[in-house]
Each structure stands twice: as C-alpha cells, then as structure tokens.
Design goal:
The structure is a single chain. The protein is mostly helical. α2 crosses α5 and α4 packs across α6. Helix content is 73%, strand content 0%. The protein is globular and about 40 Å long. It has one domain: Ribonuclease III domain (Ribonuclease iii, N-terminal Endonuclease Domain, Chain A, Orthogonal Bundle). The protein starts with 7 loop residues before the first helix and ends with a helix.
C-alpha cells in the first residue's frame, strides 16, 4: 500500500486526531498479526487477548513505557496526540489514559504515513517484550 503523504511536511500538517484514526488501525493490525503468529487459537480467544493490548489503559501503559525510547520528533507527535481534544470519552479507562492512548495512536499513524514501517515494528516489538 502506498503512503498517503509523500513528505514529512505533509504528514506534519495532518491533525493529531486524524493521525490517531490511522494509528488505531495500524496498531490493531500489528496486534492481530502478532497474536495469529503466536498461536493458532479460536477467534473468540484471539479477540479477548487482542482487547488486552488495544484498550486505552494498556495503550497508556505502553505509551509511558515507550517514551524514553522515542526520538524528539516522535515525542512531539505523541504529545500533540495526547493533548488533542477528542470528541469522545473513555469507556473503560480514565480520561488521562484515553488521552495517552490517543497520543500512542497518533504516533503510530504518523510513522505509518511517513513510511517508517521499520520504526513502527521496532516500537511494537518493545511493547510486546514489555508485556511478557
């Protein structure tokens, strides 16, 4: 799939909530790929495990874990997403966790649209290793 944005300048102009919209899908697919490659399980079981990775509380925890590993630019993107004012609220977590999770999703969206798939995988690998 070809990236929508061809340069960092264009990606920098995308709103943090739009980046989070893309990043949510990227992160969800990474989790699904990881779980399917980990073990062949019934779909219901896979979904239950997936939710433990993609809920806002877990994503907030993973975001805090990743912060020391981020570049200055990545930290700025994360903070833009975290500080954005989403129209929805957290269902199963705190408002702070929801904002932090939005920051993580913004980061993954930014990296994807920038074509930095290797960096996405590197950060996701850190998340996976932190949760085992």
């Amino acid at each position: 799939m070809e990236n929508i944005a061809k340069s960092h300048t264009k990606v920098d102009e995308i709103s943090p909530l739009t980046l989070a919209f893309v990043g949510d899908g990227v992160y969800d697919l990474l989790v699904r790929d990881y779980l399917v490659n980990l073990a062949n399980r019934p779909v219901g079981e896979l979904n239950k495990i997936k939710v433990s990775f993609v809920n806002c509380t877990s994503q907030a925890k993973f975001a805090q874990f990743l912060l020391p590993h981020l570049t200055e630019k990545e930290t700025a993107v994360y903070k833009r997403g975290r500080n954005a004012a989403p129209k929805t609220t957290a269902k199963n977590g705190s408002v702070a966790d929801y904002h932090s999770a939005t920051g993580l999703e913004s980061l993954f969206g930014y990296l994807h649209l920038s074509g930095e798939e290797a960096r996405i995988q590197e950060l996701f690998d850190l998340i996976v290793h932190s949760s085992t």
